[in-house]
Specification:
The structure holds two protein chains of two kinds. By secondary structure, chain A is an all-alpha fold. Helix content of chain A is about 65%, strand content about 0%. Chain A is elongated and about 55 Å long. Chain B has one domain: Rossmann fold, CATH 3.40.50. Classes of the chains: A mainly alpha, B alpha/beta.
Chain lengths: ~120, ~375
Amino acid sequence: MTDRTDTATADARTGLPRTAKGRRPHYFADPATDRLLAMVVTLMEELSATRDRVDSLERVLERERVLAEGAVEAFRPEGETAEVREARRAAFTARVLRVLDAEIAESPQESPSFTHVK
Amino acid sequence: MNAPGHHAMLPHPDHDETARQEWVRTFRQHLATRVAPGVAAVYERRVLPRFRAQHQREPADRHEIRREMLQDGYHQFWSALQRRSQELMWDTLADTVEREHDALVSRAKALSADGPGSLELDPDLDIPTYHAAVDIHLQPGGYHSEFAPDDVAAGALYDAALPIYLAGALGPENDLLGRTLAGFLAHHAPEFEPRRMLDMGCAIGNSTLPWCRAWPEAEVHAIDVGAPVLRYAHARAVALGARVHFSQQNAERTRFDDASFDLVVSHIMLHETSRAALPRILAECHRLLRPGGLMLHMEIPRGGTPFEQFMLEWETYNNNERFAGYMTDADLPRLAASAGFDATDCTMERASLGMSTEQKSYGAGDFSFPVLVARKASADAERQRA
């Protein structure tokens, strides 16, 4: 499966639209710069959320006194854990690259990523 | 124990959704306090001096400032980041609302069925072009689109977005605008006691509820064109113990009787309409008011200096507030007079919300909210005029 298919699959599950109707302005001489900056900002968001998650995890483990030294370093994901992790990575990738959807949404054909009931 | 302002209709972000939403809020505060002031600095330090050297004069207005600033690299970066913060806000909130979509719809139905107040939808209502053509504030789907039967997603998104969008300025119940305008009325016309009032363009009714609390005996009606926000609004009002009659109607022409309200209000709604709709809404207010009744429309700050106006107009060009620019130059009292009010009864007043720098987004400056005030002439005065 290519990255593009992964993104489309992730969005096919989506019930709510993720791009706003109306032309998306670009701010830099080259619109590619706008897209890159949008991705960088999304990465900031994701990194911050991940750090919060790690912080929560460490604090809970510390509070419950369940983490043995070196246990995290030695851990290898397998089976369902590995699948969940892979799905999360795919969703993460789709989120960071979602700015590209705006370009598709602006094209004349309606975006297939959601069903408009009314 | 629940936090202040908590109610049964709010979506529940999970751990990572909470983390993303908190980051977007942090990011926007950083942009407001650390990046946006830099836009004023580059204007003063390099854009304005260059303009003066080239033209031997000051920039004439906000449009001329805008033409210069669009070329400035720092302004480009701020604009791009500000735009992205708005997009990410909706994107992360949509994760939560999408995940809880079915539960939100069920909760809304159950609360709405319990009353008090009422909810009346009109599936045949034409959605005005100013809602249908672009998604206001970049909220995907806007206020009116439905993605499930009995949908409330647009309302849930909007309610959850307000504390992020305005950095908590509106308070735990997102009701500062309503509290401020109700307080303004109590100060402006202390003798005035609304018995039946209408809030136009109410969305989720967050600004409507303070009116119920200020005048508990009043019969409070609220209208909007969007069905999903109204379903959410009624459920939310029930959850917060308020009695409001919500109905899906266009403020340009409602189904209410002539002279059936003492008071008609709106909270930062007029700038979301259009050049054609605005005079019709004002004329409709005049029709709906009884003689001696009051009309109050709170609007968004438009800035004092041309530079402040340019900054505030960012939303016009970048946040799908297409009509907001027109409001900077609009003479609202004159439009109200053309709509049937006596010109001597129409004034612009100001109401301060006491917002902090981090809550303003576009730098400091004049940030009081304009209020269009008009009183419909008494029956005697109407007869004399005729």
